[in-house]
Amino acid sequence: MGQELSNLSLSGLLQDISNMSLVDANLFADAALAGNGGIWSLFGQKGSDVFNLMGLLSDLSGEDGNVYMLGLFYDSCNAAPGGCPAEVCLANPVLCGLPATPDPTTVTVTPPPVPICPLPSFTQAPIIHDISATAPNHPLAVGQDDEKRGVDISGSIKIPPVIYYWYEVGQDTECHALNNQHPVGNCTRNNGMPGYIIEGPACILHQATLPEEITQVIARAEMTQASVDYITGELRQQFPGAYVHQASFNLATYGQPVVGCGGGTCSADLTALNVPFADPATFNLTLMVGTKGTYYQGRMITQPRTISTKGSVRVYIVIPTLIDASSN
To answer: What is the C-alpha to C-alpha distance for residues 161 and 139, in angstroms, rounded to an integer?
Structure first.
């Protein structure tokens, strides 16, 4: 062994230790430009590539007083005399000539599919509404009625509740009746018959009854334009001086509206008594309510709205007729 070392030159010893190729100092720049990274060279004589590189750095420093350095790096730490640091090999085994560390083997567990539940929805039964004259059957204008009876008017608007449906993903706990989609049972129902429970995540239906509260009530009687034209036209020709006594009435003046909710249904009821219509005319009747909409847990489900119902009442007068009895 001692004999083998004694026969090695300094350059050969460095080449064996570093596993890098010795390049003639005159050809160092050419080898570097050619992409040969694992090379080294002695300082060389004047005029060689290595000497010129060192001379260039020296000249630059002499010109401006700055210190210039030339960095020559190994293209792989594996070629360095000390080899690659252990932490580098752990971080990137390929840099040290080792095979890449495979990604850790993971077992993928596929969870049950989460169902896509239907969007929230709501339903509401039809509104019940009406307004009409209830007595007498053929009302007279109060100017011709000795009793000054007037007309009784009744109106009502009943708003059924909003039924709100929404779904959430959860675990099914109810034993349902078997059907075509679920023909095999996995539970027993209260009646002793087989049923099924959805295994895994399921869309659980929830339901809430939301009353649609009434916030405002308006009730009016308005003479039709045709009746106005009749009184100021044809009737005035027969009875000079005829005029419209009162064309509109606030029916709430003759009966207080009753507003409230019960069993989810909200209503407004009005009974206006002895409304003193003084003109022979047709009056359009209107009962109108405003609602606040419906809400669930502070979130609006249906918007506020206006609901109305219409009717009419005819008021009469007695017109005397002269009959010529001389021909009888």
So the answer is: 38
- Please state the φ and ψ torsions of residue 122, each to the nearest 5 degrees: -150, 160
**Does 227 fall in a domain?**
yes
253 falls within a domain: yes
Distances (CA, A) of 82 to 15, 40, 71, 100, 325: 13, 16, 18, 22, 148
Kindly report the pTM of this predicted structure.
0.60
291 and 143 within one domain: yes
Asked, for residue 80, whether it belongs to a domain, the answer is no
Question: 180 with 192: CB under 8 angstroms?
Answer: no
User: Are 150 and 31 part of one and the same domain?
Assistant: no
Domain extent, residue 23, equals 2-72
Give the Cα separation of 195 and 201 in Å (integer): 18
Q: Please, what are the averages of pLDDT over each run of 10 residues along the chain (328 residues)?
A: 51 63 74 68 70 77 76 63 65 68 66 83 97 97 94 98 95 88 92 89 92 98 98 95 97 97 98 98 98 96 97 94 70
